[in-house]
Amino acid sequence: MNKKQYRMTLIIFGIISIALVVTRVFYEYVDWFVIFIVLSIFYMFVRYKISSPIQAFAKKFNMLVDYDLDVEEALRLAEDYFENSPTETLRSLVQIYVGMALYYNARYRDAINTFNQINLPKVNNLYHVLIFAFTGYAAYEEGDLETLDLCINRIEDIKNRVNKKYIAFALSYQEILKVIRNLDIDPEKYREVIEKNFSREDGYISTKLIYNYRIALYYKTVNDVEEMDKCLAKVIANGKNHHTVISAKKIFQNTCSVEDYVFPAPGTETEIEEVEIVEEPKQLD
Q: Which of 49, 55, 66, 120 is deepest in the core (most CB within 10 A)?
């Protein structure tokens, strides 16, 4: 349901409501309870028409980013859905996807600006964690450590206000941002946290890209250029226009051949149980 359809639906809802009230005034046999039932059904129908498409949108967005690695189409899809979102609450939610899509397109400053424009009271506190986390990721890529520190502190402030069953979700983001911030100080802790969160197979190509890119940063820090290039080659060979590829190309030293690190075709590797990764938009499902 786009803006025009939503407005027309509200107009129809208003007309029906007035008509039912007027009918009740002149014809007493029309019960107030019946009017309430009719209006409730209509309201639930409108709610369904608004909320149902967001589920389909989220699945398509995640598929584009995680499997197809078509980050440009993901951005186009998110921006189009944002422009046509009928309510402010839905616009705020979809704006998170726009920010993430900009991040995945390596448009880090645009992503930060988009996240800063989101009307936070319109979305659940759990989404605040996601907003601050991706803002922190983008800030790190921009070299904006002040914003990164701010994001870490904001997650610290918000984590106790999310539902208790999602505390681990918030803590994972905070832990990752902290080790990224302190990579130069404690690279071994960084590697430990990255291994813990990103090294296991979950079937998503994007997870492999993120893991190899972040581990490459570890090798860069400890001055192991050959191992760094191996990780970067895996990213460049398989990532299309994913943001990790754009960043990887900036530090790749050409000590190995990119063509040697193309991932095996799907179905040729042993299937491993699915796990959740804390940097992927599928967390919004």
A: 66
Q: What is the identity of the amino acid at 211?
A: Y
Tokens 């690190």 -> residue: 261
State both tokens at 51: 């909320």
Give the SS3 label for residue 114: helix
Nearest residue to 248 (alpha-carbon basis) of 260, 262, 261, 235: 235
Separation of alpha carbons 148 and 138, rounded Å: 8
- Mark residue 243 as left, alpha or beta (left: phi above 0; alpha: psi -120 to 50; beta: remaining): alpha
Nearest CA among 147, 79, 138 for reference residue 110? 138
Q: Cα angle vertex 19, ends 13, 24, to 5°?
A: 125
Model confidence at 50, pLDDT cuts 50, 70, 90, reads: low
Q: Which DSSP string corresponds to 15-74?
A: HHHHHHHHHHHH-TTS-HHHHHHHHHHHHHHHHHHHHHHHHHHHHHHHHIIIII--HHHH
Mean pLDDT across the stretch 84-92? 87
Domains of the chain with CATH codes = 54-284 (1.25.40)
Give the integer Cα–Cα distance in Å for 147 and 277.
23
Angle, vertex CA 59, rays to CA 61 and CA 117, nearest 5: 50
Whether the predicted model's global pTM rises above the 0.85 cut = no
**pLDDT 10s digits, 161-195:** 888 888 999 999 999 999 999 999 999 999 999 99
